[in-house]
UniProtKB/TrEMBL annotation:
It holds the Pfam family PGPGW. This is Transmembrane protein. The keyword Phosphoprotein does not apply. Residues 157-182 are annotated as: Disordered. It comes from the Bacteria. The chain crosses the membrane at residues 21-51, 80-102, 122-141. It comes from Dietzia timorensis. InterPro entries: Uncharacterised_PGPGW_TM (IPR019099). Keywords: Membrane, Transmembrane, Transmembrane helix.
Length: 182
């Protein structure tokens, strides 16, 4: 019986360590993707969500990063200009990926050795294609979820649909009195 507990404890430690490693990798990649192509806030949120299971300091950052990511996704689909800009970005990632994979000879103006022209080949092109697919998927998700109804965090007081004071309406509503808020 004690051997079984020991194995279970080792397995639990391995899972915890794996989740922390994955969390830190996502945080580092998310920070990098804030300035590079990729879903930076999404990866940062996912990494912090994993780390917050074990590290109390990470819990403080999960909600603000989540709100920033959802706010950014919402703002990105509120105008057709931003949507078209995002689609141009996706097309640019695919175009650069194709160029990276197909154009293997260095041009005459390239000052370095030919081996340093577009290093990585189709492997790098594949990561650019993956970034384009993720960006397109996030754009479609954001369009379906937020287009026409911008994101407002739940901890922010939302305006009432009738235009009145929300606190007063809540107190005077039957639901408000039933929940003991009167």
């Amino acid at each position: 019986m004690s051997e079984h507990k020991s194995w279970a404890q080792r397995q639990n430690s391995a899972v915890r360590l794996t989740l922390q490693i994955v969390g830190w990798v996502l945080v580092v990649l998310g920070i990098a993707a804030l300035v590079l192509p990729g879903p930076g806030l999404l990866m940062l949120f996912a990494g912090l969500a994993l780390l917050s299971q074990e590290l109390t300091w990470a819990q403080r950052f999960v909600t603000p990063v989540k709100h920033a990511a959802l706010r950014g996704a919402s703002e990105g689909v509120q105008s057709w200009l931003r949507i078209c800009g995002s689609l141009v970005g996706v097309a640019a990632l695919v175009a650069v990926g194709l160029a990276w994979g197909l154009w293997r000879t260095a041009p005459d103006w390239w000052p370095l050795d030919d081996q340093w022209w577009l290093p990585g080949g189709w492997g790098t092109a594949g990561t650019l294609f993956a970034s384009a697919a993720i960006a397109l998927g996030l754009l479609i998700y954001s369009f379906r979820r937020f287009r026409g109804s911008p994101y407002v965090p739940y901890d922010v007081e939302r305006p009432s649909p009738t235009g009145g004071d929300t606190a007063t309406e809540r107190e005077n509503s039957p639901a408000g009195s039933a929940t003991g808020r009167s």
